[in-house]
Amino acid sequence: MNIHEYQGKAILKSFGVRIQEGIVADNPEQAVEAAKKLKQDFNSDWVVVKAQIHAGGRGKGGGVKLAKNIDEVREKTKAIIGMQLVTPQTGPAGKKVNKVLIAQDVYYPGASETKEFYMSVLLDRAHGRNIIMYSTEGGMDIEEVAEKTPHLIQKEEVDPAIGLQGFQARKIAFNLGLSGAAFKDMTKFVAALYKAYDATDSSQFEINPVLKTSDDKILAVDAKVNLDENALYRHPDYAELRDLAEEDPTEVEAGRSNLNYVKLDGNVGCMVNGAGLAMATMDIIKIAGGEPANFLDVGGTANAETVKAGFNIILKDPNVKAILINIFGGIVRCDRVAQGVIDAYNEIGNIPVPIIVRLQGTNAEEAKKLIDESGLKVFSAIQLKEAADLVSKVLS
Ligand code: GDP
Ligand code: MN
């Protein structure tokens, strides 16, 4: 589960990670109040207005702006809230901005140079270890650094049973070229960051940039946090961090009906029981010359209710020109599923696209008979290839 920068920073701060302080705002007046409070609390004359969306690269897309006085705070917030922000990570349609983070300016001049680093903590599944990835090349597109100058990205493996050791934090600070107060502060930063990642059961904490300020403090300017959904039951208070406005509305609705749905770009809707069979179904659609419009796993019990919910979700997508239902009747009997399809069809009424149903397993023959005799615009098949060929036939 992705969360916003301001939420990620609040988590970091609660674990003792120094952050670029800020206050979230929904409108220009709130933004002005926030800026005044930041001036009071942190003596920050300038502030940055940062669009809060679940995607990185906001700076490049015009979603991060420096404001040098209160009028600029109001103006820049006005311009950013409501905008459709396009970044390298949003796709061409962009994402609508509903909130901004008003943050203290941490790039102030001082005794030494400011310096941007990259740091992330993530799970390396292959090694069963946590990894701290870090680089002197912070602030920029890390994928580009990885591609062009991979030797500038370093990795420190952490055994989850032992945790981060002091020497590892010092090694990282040393490899980042730090000394003196900044070196010491970086070791604290790394230790607190690892603790935050570990204690929240996260899949990823990415801080780009980590900043060394001109007075040698180390802090998180950005925070991209991915909480592990499978561990959310251990953190009931994190449920409220979810922002449904950032997620695909059809996927949210599917989640409410306990359906596992992922929208894709093709024109053949699919409804399948079991994730593996759903993947195989998408493959066979492609082999038959079609393109799947979605991934949809309706789970073990494919009854009239789930089939109906599945139809409703699939039919929300205007690209869908045919629907392929592929159910293996292992625990569920095929004739029950067939009856479910017929009932759902009759309840929804006029389904505007042809439906191909492939039922295999217990009572498959009876199921085919039910479908064939229903008088509905539903085609039945028992073999998967047969079903896929039917799909390409109805589409051509
Ligand atoms: P991203 O573009 O979505 O990764 O957003 P970031 O939070 O990383 O901000 C993008 C860039 O904005 C940073 O790399 C900085 O160059 C700039 N920026 C962020 N905070 C400040 C600040 O306090 N002062 C100034 N002058 N620039 C900032
Ligand atoms: Mn960033």
What does this entry show, briefly?
The chain is α+β, with helices and mostly antiparallel strands and 396 residues long. It is built from 12 helices and 18 strands.
Question: Could you walk me through the main structural features you see in this protein, from its secondary elements to its overall organization?
Answer:
By secondary structure, the protein is an alpha+beta fold. The chain is built from 12 helices and 18 strands. The chain has helices at about 5-15, 30-40, 70-80, 140-150, 165-175, 180-200, 250-255, 275-285, 305-315, 335-350, 365-370, 385-395; strands at about 20-25, 45-50, 65, 85, 95, 100-105, 115-125, 130-135, 155-160, 200-210, 220, 225, 260-265, 270, 295, 320-330, 355-360, 380. A hairpin with a 5-residue loop joins strand 10 (about 200-210) and strand 11 (about 220). Helix 8 (about 275-285) packs across helix 12, helix 9 packs across helix 10 (about 335-350) and helix 10 (about 335-350) packs parallel to helix 11. About 40% of the residues are buried. The mean pLDDT is about 95. Bound molecules: guanosine-5'-diphosphate and manganese (II) ion. Manganese (II) ion (MN) binds near residues 208 and 222. Guanosine-5'-diphosphate (GDP) binds near residues 57, 58, 105, 106 and 208. Belongs to the succinate/malate CoA ligase beta subunit family. It holds the Pfam family ATP-grasp_2. Heterotetramer of two alpha and two beta subunits. Pathway: Carbohydrate metabolism; tricarboxylic acid cycle; succinate from succinyl-CoA (ligase route): step 1/1.
